[in-house]
Write a structure and sequence with these properties.
Two copies of one chain form a homodimer.
Chain A: H1 4-14, E1 29-33, E2 36-39, E3 44-47, H2 60-72, H3 82-92, E4 101-105, H4 108-123, E5 127-131, H5 140-143, H6 147-150, E6 162-165, H7 180-199, E7 204-209, E8 212-213, E9 219-220, H8 225-235, E10 239-243, H9 258-261, E11 268-271, E12 282-286, H10 288-294, H11 308-323, H12 326-347, E13 351-357, E14 360-365, H13 376-388, E15 391-392, E16 394-396, E17 402-405, H14 413-427
Parallel strand pairs in A: 3-15, 5-6, 5-7, 7-10, 10-11
Antiparallel strand pairs in A: 1-2, 2-3, 4-12, 8-9, 11-12, 13-14, 14-17, 16-17
Helix pairs in contact in A: 2-11, 3-11, 4-10, 7-8, 12-14
Chain lengths: 435, 435
Amino acid sequence: MLTHKEILELRKQFIGPSFSISYREPLHILRAEGQYLFDDHGNRYLDAVNNISHVGHCHPRVIAAAEKQARLLNTNARYLHDSIVHYAQDLTGTFPDGLDVCYFTNSGSESNDLALRMARLFTGSRESIVLNGAYHGHTAALIEISPYKFDGPAGAGAPEYVHVIPMPDPYRGRFRGNDQETSTQYAGLIQDAIENIKNNGKQVALFIAEAIMGCGGQVIFPQSFLQQAFELVKKASGICIADEVQIGFGRVGTHFWGFETCGAIPDIVTVGKSMGNGHPLSAVITRKEIANAFDNGMEYFNSFGGNPVSCTIGQAVLDVVRDEHLQENALEVGSYLLDLLKEVKKKHPIIGDVRGQGLFLGVELIKDHDDLIPAGDDADLTVNMMKDEGILLSSDGPDHNVLKIKPPLVFTKDNALELAETLDKVLNQDNFRID
Amino acid sequence: MLTHKEILELRKQFIGPSFSISYREPLHILRAEGQYLFDDHGNRYLDAVNNISHVGHCHPRVIAAAEKQARLLNTNARYLHDSIVHYAQDLTGTFPDGLDVCYFTNSGSESNDLALRMARLFTGSRESIVLNGAYHGHTAALIEISPYKFDGPAGAGAPEYVHVIPMPDPYRGRFRGNDQETSTQYAGLIQDAIENIKNNGKQVALFIAEAIMGCGGQVIFPQSFLQQAFELVKKASGICIADEVQIGFGRVGTHFWGFETCGAIPDIVTVGKSMGNGHPLSAVITRKEIANAFDNGMEYFNSFGGNPVSCTIGQAVLDVVRDEHLQENALEVGSYLLDLLKEVKKKHPIIGDVRGQGLFLGVELIKDHDDLIPAGDDADLTVNMMKDEGILLSSDGPDHNVLKIKPPLVFTKDNALELAETLDKVLNQDNFRID
């Protein structure tokens, strides 16, 4: 086994430097189980951040299904196989009627990139409406529609065809609060963008959004914003894309998909991350009309997408989510944790806001309560101190001042209590006193 | 188990129609081993087409390595782990000095898209030189630099920033033959493109090419073309990208990488497909200078890229290629098969050309020997008849008239003989007589 120093030196030598490592003192993790990670000293960490390990790290049922299929067959989807159609049928069954057609891919980025191609082809346009702070993936085309990237460090700014709407953030957005009026105000900005596009003699291609913004900082929209926004974009013949890569598969608790919590019906849904519990698996789900338009003679082929091992793993994850009632657990434990965090907030003025749904929660740290000055450095320090206490979190948002909580869905109430108590303890340090 | 009809109906209902299925009567494959696939009737097929299953289908050593790691840990690359640095060190060791830095991704498309981003950033330009007939992946940005797609059915043509060079095809290209003069003639077209870009006041960003064209129809370039082309592009401060997704990891026999057969040194290499023997695994390898320029403040993160299971699988594939001497086998069996196919060509005027290197071979079918009219329909018929005889091939190339041979590298001389004899038998049918 290599030492930390050796691994870091080899990474420096052989791995692209743009891959960042978590924590000031990185962790050398050797094994994992459920919601726990174990490092090279045998220390146990409570994992409150790895949403990819959706049904728990190293879930035996998922691993067993993968092994069985890997020993039999793993070819591309150009041959007939039961696994792809069973899984596609089961997966589409979790969506509202009409979202019936699947494309299997290998990452959320591949899915969002494909969704982009579909929407552009269907509308004959590239004009895209996006939310400020949003991240939709790392391909060249996705960086161009991700303000998180193009307005972040070394970003090139928004291309001409991209129209950025202020983040509909009830806490620190242009309009504040969670009522109908705020929703309508933000929806008005969508309408402005649509009209702006029209006035330039163009057609809106798409509006893409996560129903709860992930990299944007665990932002829950004013209640009817997304529904109104989708209706306006559809009325203008644009395509509405729900990016469920971070939040899908029961994480939000009350529903299986994030967009359902908003009463919004997308034309295209993209899923990934949690879908394969760590296996590179993702998909695009859309309506027949859009799928048929995309079937214009140019084949879409994906070397690994829809292969029997990937589909078998996806099926096992779906089965486990249902059989272990993980959506229900996300609701119960998530609600409990949210209440606990609200209590912690009362004791610590550095906490400006606590928010989220199910097991997708955020704790926003601020320097003061008048101007809501973001406390990004404190968030970073908190994440590192929590790690030293054995609990893994991350920070994100445009100002990197939001603690992200998105654990495997097997997280328990005891885990929630431990997290809240530890956060309380860490924030009791002198460092975090604000005026 | 579902019937063919049931699977086809469910695919029609739930799977995107742009995924095509192989063969007029599709195969329902249930299991695989080495170079053999077995269908729902227990029929055995000799697999001469699945290059992804590089070390043989369901290789026990690769599966065992994957299982062992999957039971321990599968998290993202933000923690320290031995597997990623060991694998990166071993993988970069197979490249010429200077190609030292890895980025792990989940598909050849993700790799080429990332390579594109790097080259654009490094040069501050998008001006791209590509070969006609080339395919580099399915993302929005890659479709725009893939003539196979943008000039194929429903293609939108070349964007302004893409400069297409005629395919350097010694058999039916603008210049014919395999000598120094032909190489220089094609290289001259690269120089023309560079000057054209300069005359428009722009800078060349990149030239991307496979050393042997895959979708282009198993085209081997005139001997020094690629070397000359890379030199010219580098002289103009452009980035040379070698797309090794289809041909890498010892397949070409004489060398581990295709570009090595041409004496050409790329700035960036992209690999995929065979890298994980079916597991979604791919990479970009480049020089430190380019990696450092790409590390400009904008993070590149990939959810699954470089995770311990993916790296462990990649390492196992690399180990098996070496321990089972599969590069040497590709050379020996490939050369033997090429000779056999040349004998078959003598008997069948429908075969216009037989070519390739190692176990990446092509048989081009034509309607006549004067005008080289492509026999795409005959290639399709041949592929289907070969399938009925128990041997799996595909057809490709701009005219779909090239039989592609790219089997798992465990292919034996007996397999080669069976393939050649069966092709001879199939072409003996009346259907294939040409004038």
